[in-house]
């Protein structure tokens, strides 16, 4: 069942996933706020990425600052090269990215377009009270540079031998000409990036390794493998730093689009930082006694784009008699709420036992309590936000010390002994 983007935006709002930023002021273009369920979902995605990438011997985490020395962006090529060609329609004044146009006329009104102009995508601001050229700083357009400039700090303090990697999650800012498609392209977004430093000559092998690891990760969080594919960059698509690049694409309602980039950046970044800073970033291999500038394999994925893919991938509508049941079939590892607890009726003895069971589970997973409306309606409500399991306490529970657990996907109900409830839920959720 396909869902269009307008439906999705309203569904995300209605269910507390994503709100328009500054909505009471009429909103601000392309800025979004993650609501209570959205922030849980995004945190789960980030946590799973961190577990997959940093919870291993050869990768360390980092949290570098957003504002960096302005020379960083000269060295990285962003001051000179991080530009898009933009054109304006002389008639309707709409603005477009030249590389996204197929015709020489305005796609909105057929009007004549201006000559292309170069537009730098970095946000500029001033450090300190004086707004002068000398005080210009940029909001980082990617997290990667914070990793490169810390390459030797991490390598030497953590005593790593090559190959090893550094991973980071953080905000990045791009003054996109044509933001849109909800959180797919925004001007403020979050990246999850890992830079893997390898010996020149071993880069191709590691590139293949990370390509496979990364597509497997997307599958592990529940993305349908039929909706995922690789796209290799042709020579004219390659960024200024890249020797080889593959995107992992997801099939969005608006077509196949990138969610992650995997790049062989060669020694471009470290060489440029050595040149611009005057500091050596060479690595000394004490076994082979060689000194060299490592090559970098980068994996760069957007947390927001992944979240958008995850919601679209999970959304389903099913006919149930005359009614339509809408469900978010999140993988249990990323579902914002794992278990909902219901007393069958608003009776004190049922409410008390339900609270008691919820309290005993609270430290294990995110839960929710609901006592309003029929049980059927309460199941629907949880289906709509993707909660995998619901626990109902009824009058029999007071006698037989058991509760009913209902599964979101099979809709099957099982009677489970209260003293076995937590291990049962953990096993169903795949949480050890
Ligand atoms: P695009 O071609 O879509 O502009 P890109 O090739 O510039 O993307 P990269 O620089 O490779 O993107 O960034 C890595 C990842 O960061 C992307 O795969 C995407 O998930 C995320 N990302 C980049 N720009 C944005 C944006 N404006 N909004 C949301 N996520 C973004």
The largest sheet has its strands arranged as 3-9-10-16-13-12-11
Mean pLDDT: 95
Helix content: 25-40%
Q: What is the overall silhouette?
A: globular
Largest sheet: 7 strands, mixed
CATH class of one domain: Alpha Beta
Look at the helices and sheets and give the structural class.
Answer: alpha+beta
**Which homologous superfamily in CATH is the superfamily of one domain?**
Bira Bifunctional Protein, Domain 2
Question: What is the CA-based Rg, rounded?
Answer: 25 Å
Q: Distance N terminus to C terminus?
A: 33 Å
Q: What is the number of E strands?
A: 23
Ligand identities: adenosine-5'-triphosphate
Strand content: 25-35%
Which spans of ≥5 residues are poorly predicted at pLDDT below 50?
none
What is the count of helical runs?
13
User: What is the correct CATH architecture of one domain?
Assistant: 2-Layer Sandwich
CATH topology of one domain: BirA Bifunctional Protein, domain 2
Give an account of the 3D structure.
This protein has 432 residues and is α+β, with helices and mostly antiparallel strands. Among the domains are: 35-67 and 144-311, BirA Bifunctional Protein, domain 2; 337-429, Rossmann fold (3-Layer(aba) Sandwich), CATH 3.40.50. The protein is built from 13 helices and 23 strands. It has a seven-stranded mixed sheet with strand order 3-9-10-16-13-12-11, sandwiched between helices. Helix 10 links the parallel strand 19 (339-343) and strand 20 (367-369). The longest helix has 19 residues, at 36-54. The chain is globular. The mean pLDDT is 95. The structure holds adenosine-5'-triphosphate.
């Amino acid at each position: 069942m396909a869902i269009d983007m307008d439906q999705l935006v309203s569904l995300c709002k209605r269910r507390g996933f994503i709100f328009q930023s500054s909505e009471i002021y009429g909103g601000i273009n392309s800025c979004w706020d993650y609501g209570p369920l959205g922030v849980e979902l995004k945190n789960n995605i980030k946590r799973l990425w961190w577990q997959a990438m940093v919870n291993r011997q050869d990768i360390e985490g980092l949290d570098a600052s957003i504002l960096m020395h302005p020379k960083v962006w000269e060295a990285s090529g962003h001051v000179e090269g991080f530009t898009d060609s933009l054109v304006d329609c002389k008639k309707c004044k709409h603005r477009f990215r030249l590389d996204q146009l197929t015709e020489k006329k305005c796609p909105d009104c057929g009007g004549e377009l201006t000559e292309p102009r170069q537009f730098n995508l970095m946000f500029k601001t001033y450090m300190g009270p004086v707004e002068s050229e000398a005080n210009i700083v940029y909001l980082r357009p990617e997290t990667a540079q914070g990793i490169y400039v810390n390459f030797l700090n991490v390598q030497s303090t953590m005593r790593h031998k090559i190959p090893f990697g550094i991973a980071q999650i953080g905000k990045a800012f791009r003054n996109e000409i044509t933001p849109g498609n909800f959180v797919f392209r925004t001007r403020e977004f979050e990246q999850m990036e890992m830079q893997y430093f390898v010996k020149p000559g071993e880069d191709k092998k590691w590139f293949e390794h990370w390509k496979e690891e990364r597509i497997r990760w997307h599958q592990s969080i529940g993305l349908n493998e039929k909706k995922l594919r690789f796209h290799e960059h042709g020579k004219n698509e390659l960024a200024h730093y890249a020797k080889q690049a593959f995107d992992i694409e997801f099939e969005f309602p608006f077509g196949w689009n990138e969610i992650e980039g995997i790049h062989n950046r060669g020694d471009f970044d470290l060489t440029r930082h050595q040149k611009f800073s005057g500091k050596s970033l060479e690595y000394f291999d004490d076994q082979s006694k060689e000194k060299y500038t490592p090559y970098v394999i980068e994996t760069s994925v957007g947390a927001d784009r992944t979240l958008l893919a995850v919601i679209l991938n999970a959304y389903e509508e099913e006919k149930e008699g005359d009614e339509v049941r809408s469900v978010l079939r999140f993988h249990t590892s990323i579902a914002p709420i794992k278990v909902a607890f219901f007393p069958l009726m608003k009776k004190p003895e049922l409410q008390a036992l339900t609270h008691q069971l919820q309290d005993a589970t609270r430290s294990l997973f995110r839960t929710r309590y609901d006592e309003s409306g029929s049980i059927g309606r309460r199941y629907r409500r949880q289906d709509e936000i993707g909660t995998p399991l619901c626990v109902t306490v009824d009058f029999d529970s007071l006698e037989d010390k058991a509760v009913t657990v209902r599964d979101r996907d099979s809709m099957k109900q099982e009677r489970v002994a209260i003293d076995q409830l937590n291990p049962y839920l953990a096993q169903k959720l795949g949480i050890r």
